[in-house]
Write a structure and sequence with these properties.
Strand order of the largest sheet: 2-1-3-4-5
Distance between the termini: 59 Å
CATH topology of the largest domain: Rossmann fold
Radius of gyration: 20 Å
Number of domains: 2
CATH superfamily of the largest domain: Nicotinate-nucleotide-dimethylbenzimidazole phosphoribosyltransferase (CobT), large domain
CATH class of the largest domain: Alpha Beta
Bound molecules: nicotinate mononucleotide, 5,6-dimethylbenzimidazole
Order of helices and strands: HHEHHEHEHHHHHEHEHH
Strand content: 5-15%
């Protein structure tokens, strides 16, 4: 297996410290810009310069796929919505495409595993397709090892395209009915917690349906057992082509020294898995928002990531990260343009 999982080099400590010192000298009370100060420090470390430049070339990539478990009553919506939403992305009417246009972010969607041939959509979109849907994770491994490898390589290729285009900040969005179930499993396995702590309502399952979803996640965790201690086995057992590809995009991007803005449950599940595969990846990530999903909140807490927005969003698509882009750019602008208190 040719996965490059050596540790990822850390961002530049000296640039981080210089940014912290500069922020403390600006014309404001120390610490008064809150999380914007943390973001300026993070960007300085990632860019290896103080002050950091304002990220102009922000690129979002949305990875779409279907999930075998979606046939087992874990979502409030039918799986056909995934393919329909891919078409909305092509039309530019999905929430993420609207936000990306507003914030000058270039967005590309790829089908890694949608359960539809997507006839008529532009070719580049299906270029990296691995298969139609993953297997039902509570009954069998969601992917074959060969499919997982192919998906990982697809993610590396997608990252290389973004990096060749001089991306300064990357957002990885997700799309796929049922995907909050594998994401919850990945987080539970990474943190060693039970199904009850990571199961959320996803697209809106409540009451008995939510209890059923918890049981499905528990069954999946029980089926895989100790094998879930290994992050690559976790991806084969619970993942999907789109989730594996996203992990590869994160690791490849971090290794290239380009920062990543995380989104909701799925994005954070991918990041925590990426960190286990290639330690150090998380240092290149900031949290765009706090999703309403309990698994996402728990994982952010464990990773020590403080989300930029807390807006009760639970859409996915990269939407929470896209909504946070103006604040991240503001953080970089402030550390560049504010006067020093001593100069007043
Ligand atoms: O990002 C999140 O935190 C998030 C929370 C709930 C739902 N979603 C989105 O909704 C879909 C999965 O929800 P579900 O209920 O079908 O598992 C998928 O397309 C995700 O992008 C995303
Ligand atoms: C309509 C719809 C749009 C979505 N976008 C991401 N997940 C979604 C789930 C649904 C149901």
């Amino acid at each position: 297996m040719a996965i490059h999982t050596a540790p990822v080099p850390a961002p530049d400590m000296a640039a981080r410290e210089a940014a912290r010192r500069r922020l403390d000298q600006l014309a404001k009370p120390v610490g008064s810009l809150g999380i914007l100060e943390d973001l300026a420090v993070w960007l300085a470390g990632c860019q290896r310069r103080c002050p950091p430049t304002v990220p102009q070339r922000v690129r979002a990539v949305v990875l779409a796929g279907d999930h075998g478990v979606a046939r087992y009553g874990v979502s409030a919506y039918p799986r056909e919505v995934t393919a329909a939403m891919v078409r909305a992305f092509v039309d530019g009417t999905a929430a993420a495409t609207v936000l990306a246009r507003q914030h000058q972010v270039e967005l590309q969607i790829y089908d890694l595993g949608v359960d539809d041939d997507l006839d008529g959509v532009p070719e580049p979109l299906t270029r990296y397709k691995v298969r139609r849907s993953s297997g039902p994770l509570q009954l069998e491994d969601a992917l074959t090892p060969a499919d997982a490898e192919q998906a990982y390589q697809a993610g590396e290729s997608i990252a290389r395209e973004l990096l060749a285009d001089d991306a300064e900040l990357i957002i990885i969005g997700d799309l796929g009915i049922g995907n909050t179930t594998p994401a919850a499993c990945l987080i539970a396995a990474a943190l060693g917690v039970g199904a009850e702590q990571v199961t959320g309502s996803g697209t809106g399952v409540r009451g008995a349906e939510l209890a059923h979803k918890t049981d499905v996640i528990k069954a999946a965790l029980d089926r895989v057992g100790d094998r879930a201690a290994d992050p690559w086995q976790r991806l084969i057992a619970f993942g999907s082509a789109d989730l594996v590809a996203a992990v590869a995009v994160m690791i490849t991007t971090a290794r290239a020294g380009v920062p990543i803005l995380l989104d909701g449950l799925i994005s954070v599940a991918e990041a925590i898995t990426a960190e286990d595969l290639a330690p150090g990846t998380i240092a290149w990530c900031a949290a765009g928002h706090r999703s309403t999903e309990p698994g996402q909140q728990l994982a952010l807490q464990k990773l020590g990531l403080r989300p930029i927005l807390d807006a009760s969003m639970r859409l996915g698509e990269g939407s929470g990260a896209l909504a946070a882009v103006p604040l991240l750019r503001s953080a970089a602008l402030l550390i560049n343009r504010m006067s020093l208190l001593s100069d007043l």
